[in-house]
Amino acid sequence: MTANGRNAPKPAFGKRAHGLWLAPFLPYDGPMMDNASPFMEALALIMRLDPVFLGIVALSLRVTLTAVCLTALIGLPLGALLAVSRFPGRSVAIVAINALMGLPPVVVGLTFFLLLSRSGPLGGFGLLFSPSAMIIAQASLVLPIVIALTRQTIEDLWANYREYLQSIGMGPKQAIMTLLWDARFSLATALLAGFGRATAEVGAVLIVGGNIAGVTRMMTTAIALETSKGDLALALGLGIILVGITLMVNALAFGMSRIGVRHAG
Amino acid sequence: MIHPMSFEVKTGRRLVVLGPNGAGKSLLLRLCHGLLQPVAGQVHRNDHHPAGRRAHAMVFQMPVMLRRSVFDNVTHALATVGVPSAQLRSRAVEALNRFGLTGFSERPARLLSGGEQQRLAIARAWALRPDLLFLDEPTAALDPSATRLIEAMLGDLHAEGVTLMMSTHDLGQARRLADDVVFLASGSLVEASEAKQFFNDPQTQQARAFIAGDLVW
Fold first, then answer.
1. Exposed, middle or buried: residue B65 (CB in 10 Å: 0-12, 13-18, 19+)?
2. pLDDT of residue A257
3. Which residues 110-139 in chain B show a CB within 8 A of chain A?
4. Interchain pair A168, B81: CB under 8 A
């Protein structure tokens, strides 16, 4: 007997044999609509611009874009500095940055949870379970990626430019500005890679955000929650948007590289 | 590595640093220009110039083109040496006109041919109004017609009073361009004299062998 009082239909042999992957496309007695495909309901959610749905998407984009902007402000100059500077321990710094690229998101989430919780050193700021905490966590995850990609890009360009820039008397600060500007199309691709990473992230934002409805519920955390509840329509709808964003980001990255070649050679 | 040596770059003359591959020609130019510092000894040069000029500039064997337009490559160099913003455009236009690059002004510099890039490199260096121009085998990667064009440009620069210090392993080019010759082999200064004397009456066995086309180690 189901929650609405009707006998649950016995699954046919084909459904049982194929398992859960067919479920979104088959009729089911779910909480949203009777006998409606979750996929069709997901499309309906998107088409009618459901406010809850839109709110989740908007929050996700706001958090991720802010995190990437912060990362750009810190990571691009740091990566460039690492590329052109020579100092003791530089190799260790490079290895550490590269290793941090593979940091497990849940570990980042746990770290900031401990820092931002009331008993933590930064608890006084009251940031835990807020979009700000999620921005910090995402920025921390993306920062090593941006620094590492920036360092590699700028180092290659610096190898090409170094003698010339030194021969016209350019100092280190001006050189970094020149390198960052000339590598802008490649660096934009690096930022898009960071954006893609942040968009797809679940663990860290779930821990520091708490997945609170209307406050800290993002696309990835909402998909995890709704799937576990069995509300596949909302999960699917958000998944469609997420895949769409990923495709768009990759298309943008491709476009950037083409524009770069056309404008800068 | 190069061994201790002493010679003078005379104002208004064309000094060609001649020698086989690996003789230390490029290293010497970089030391003289200040890109490298000697571990011993001194390089005396006049580095004092008002803002907007460089005492010396360098053109590399493989021209370094920034990832920007031809025009912006020149304005970037001018801005770096402190040319006021109001003069950037006019001086860049003047340099591009001087070296026949006006038609390429908006083109990405990296999309120019090798000869055009080297012309741009020379135009960019000339725009800085250097008294002394270093050129590290500027035509090594160019075809004969591009080489002739570059040599003609260098002749014009010399006529304007720019001192040139150029490295090459091309004997014919050295004969055509040099007022003075510094001949290097294995990092050592083997002979330094006026070009006429060097080619007509070389004083050392190594110089004689090099001019004759024999391998010099």
1. buried
2. 84
3. 110-111, 128
4. yes
